[in-house]
Design goal:
The protein has one domain (about 1-90). About 30% of the residues lie in helices and about 30% in strands. Strand 2 (about 15-25) and strand 3 (about 25-35) form a beta hairpin. The protein is elongated and about 55 Å long. It is α+β, with helices and mostly antiparallel strands. Strands 1-2-3 form a 3-stranded antiparallel β-sheet, covered by helices on one side. The two termini are about 20 Å apart. The chain has helices at about 50-65, 75-90, and strands at about 1-10, 15-25, 25-35.
Length: about 100
């Protein structure tokens, strides 16, 4: 099961966190992706693979001293945790 949480930034950009919980070899694991929607756009894009976004937004930041593009450039650990907890509330087992 997946869950999506959207955060709105001061500059009008929206950030969508898509989280999921899965089981692999009897271990539960969390996965997540992030997507960006720029102001005045209807399109969600992956900031790590969308060529136009990388050329337009990220390359200039690298020239200004940014060393690497990471999830932390878009969302905080707390925002990811909140999305995970919302999913957990929806799927957690209950004892009857």
């Amino acid at each position: 099961m997946t869950h999506e949480k959207i955060y709105k930034r001061k500059d009008g950009t929206s950030v969508k966190i898509s989280v999921w919980l899965y089981v692999h070899q009897n271990k539960s694991n969390w996965g997540y992706l992030i997507f960006i929607k720029e102001p005045d756009s209807d399109r969600w894009l992956d900031p790590f693979s969308d060529r136009d976004y990388i050329l337009r937004i990220m390359n200039p930041k690298f020239k200004e001293g940014l060393k690497a593009d990471t999830f932390e450039n878009y969302v905080s650990a707390d925002e990811i945790l909140k999305a995970k907890l919302e999913l957990w509330q929806m799927i957690k087992p209950t004892i009857s």
